[in-house]
Amino acid sequence: MLLEGKIALITGAGHRLGKSIALALAEEGCDLMIHFNQAGEAAAETAKQARLFGVRADIVGADLSLTEGVREVYRAIDSAYGRIDLLANSAAILERRELLEVDEEHWRSTIGLNLKGAFFVLQEAARRMRSKGGGGIVNISDTASRRPWKEFPLHSISKSGLEMLTQVAAYALAPEIRVNGVIPGPTLKPTWMPDERWKEVTSRIPLRQAIPSRNVAEAVVFLMTNEYITGHSLRVDGGDLLI
């Protein structure tokens, strides 16, 4: 599939990995709807950089843990473009919380965005893609989906659910819509993590370094363009899951 001229929604694209995915799709010639929740200025900067590739880039702010937030995103897409061809489901929250400390609000915020939000964003995209003849979806997962992180129980649960969503949706939406996932390893240091701890995390994986966000974005582009891959989650983890 050629991506030039396609309409792509990237959630959580104001900064970090979502931004890299947005710019990689812009480089391929996609027009973009860049979603953010609180990072409005960062999203505007992402859009500005995307336009340097000669594409259109709009931004929309919404809390995707709420169904009204999902509706707001698609109102913006319907108004601006009238269709959607590609979705990169990237928005997520990562909160450190011991299992016995988790309460209902923690559950609501993490599962609400990482899994519930991802589901309904995918559902609305699929409805529009099917009416227009098809499309491609990539969910951004995490190595926590395959190996539990005991200090991040909700993150692990949500990403495991996202992996199953990828497979179920690929089965349910074929052949018009392909659904795949990307599983990044350590890519960008969390803002709250000390530098020494990050160095420990990245040095223990087989390739001994953090995965450049550009490499993860290239995996998204690959899955969007290859017309014979669906239901697959591509690891871009530097070998992290080997250990």
Question: How would you explain this protein's 3D organization?
Answer:
The chain has helices at 16-27, 40-51, 67-80, 104-131, 153-173, 195-203, 213-225; strands spanning 7-10, 31-36, 57-61, 86-89, 135-140, 177-184, 233-236. It has 243 residues and is of the alpha/beta class. The protein has a single domain (7-236), classed as Rossmann fold. It has a seven-stranded parallel sheet with strand order 3-2-1-4-5-6-7, with helices on both faces. Helix 3 (67-80) runs parallel beside helix 4. It is globular, with a radius of gyration of 17 Å. The mean pLDDT is 96.
Would you kindly provide a brief summary of this structure?
This protein has 243 residues and is an alpha/beta fold.
Distinctive features:
7 helices, single chain, seven-stranded parallel β-sheet, 243 residues, globular, Rossmann fold, 45% helix
C-alpha end-to-end distance: 35 Å
Structural class: alpha/beta
Q: How are strands sequenced across the largest beta sheet?
A: 3-2-1-4-5-6-7
CATH superfamily heading: NAD(P)-binding Rossmann-like Domain
Which stretches are low in confidence, meaning pLDDT under 50 for 5 or more residues running? Answer: none
Can you write the helix and strand succession as a string?
Answer: EHEHEHEHEHEHHE
Tell me the total number of β-strands.
7
Write the layout of secondary structure elements.
Elements: E1 7-10, H1 16-27, E2 31-36, H2 40-51, E3 57-61, H3 67-80, E4 86-89, H4 104-131, E5 135-140, H5 153-173, E6 177-184, H6 195-203, H7 213-225, E7 233-236
Parallel strand pairs: 1-2, 1-4, 2-3, 4-5, 5-6, 6-7
Helix pairs in contact: 1-2, 1-7, 3-4, 4-5
